[in-house]
């Protein structure tokens, strides 16, 4: 693998993500310190007057979120274009035309608007209901939403962006289903995941929970990898379900939401008078809520990555024990690293801040010392 090329590619992607974070912070902070958030709220309230009285507050929140989203797009769309289109093409990873990329961005914007407006409406319903204690019931509801999205995203959202169809290679389908049964993870089916129309990268996943759990293997992986290699990659994915990593992640995310909402409630109660808000239920305070809750998530991100790396190492061991094929594991990791331009050996600081998986070199070394 060309490590210099992979390192340059990942450095560029990290820099754009940091610039994007800075833009978000500057935008939300700027809305607060310039009173632009109050103006955006006034605009939303003026349009919401045409709605029935019982819906005025909800419509105001939805319109405010719509306005905030479009203002955010002014800075985030050029960054997304550079990161997900220009850089991907520069490094030979993209198969997507500009028109197709733009359509995907439009879909993401619409989905983000619907989910964002819905989430904010629920949040402010609880704030109006209990200005001091809203964070607890709101956090509980948002945790349930995470479970719902984890369950439904593979069948509702994924097909909006990718072609998903039953795997036609019967021998591989039977092999993967049999392996899932040996591992104790019942799957709904095995599907071909159409990545090739967008990217040259390869991937595989076990998505959904319960009745929506399904195996996905990208067409880019089916075209290049042996059945042994695909089997060992899927064995790794099965491990996350066998070990309950998905549910552990949901619980961690739920606790993070609760902590973020708790901090946000304290900050909001302090900022009401300071920011000239009409009360905690004033939607003009949403940037303050987002900054406070986002700060909690940002502080906890290294811990989340560290926990994830522990889970990934355990999943690698499970895959080796289940398949007893370290040779296929090593060759699959090398292929994935080269094809997806993964950094073989990033610095400890980069791992700590950005990586949810152990470095490729470490994973290969562990497999090479595995005793069958």
The profile of the biggest β sheet is: 4 strands, mixed
Portion in helices:
over 70%
> Which range does the strand content fall in?
under 5%
Separation of termini? 27 Å
Rg calculated over all Cα atoms: 23 Å
Care to count the β-strands?
Answer: 4
**For this entry, what is the oligomeric state of its chains?**
single chain
Helix-strand pattern? HHHHHHEHEEEHHHHHHH
Shape type: elongated
User: What low-confidence regions span 5 or more consecutive residues with pLDDT below 50?
Assistant: none
Strand arrangement, major sheet: 1-2-4-3
Q: Determine the number of helices (DSSP H or I, runs of at least 4 residues).
A: 14
Briefly note the structural class of the backbone: mainly alpha
Mean pLDDT across residues: 94
Description:
Strand 3 (204-207) and strand 4 form a beta hairpin. This protein has 14 helices and 4 strands. It starts with a helix and ends with a helix. A 4-stranded mixed beta sheet has the order 1-2-4-3. The longest helix is centred in the last third of the chain and has 38 residues, at 286-323. The protein has helices at residues 3-33, 36-48, 56-90, 98-129, 135-156, 158-161, 170-183, 219-224, 227-242, 245-274, 286-323, 326-339, 348-354, 360-368, and strands spanning 163-166, 190-194, 204-207, 214-218. Helices cover 73% and strands 5% of the residues. Helix 7 (170-183) packs parallel to helix 9 (227-242), helix 9 packs across helix 12 (326-339) and helix 11 packs across helix 13. The protein has 372 residues and is mostly helical.
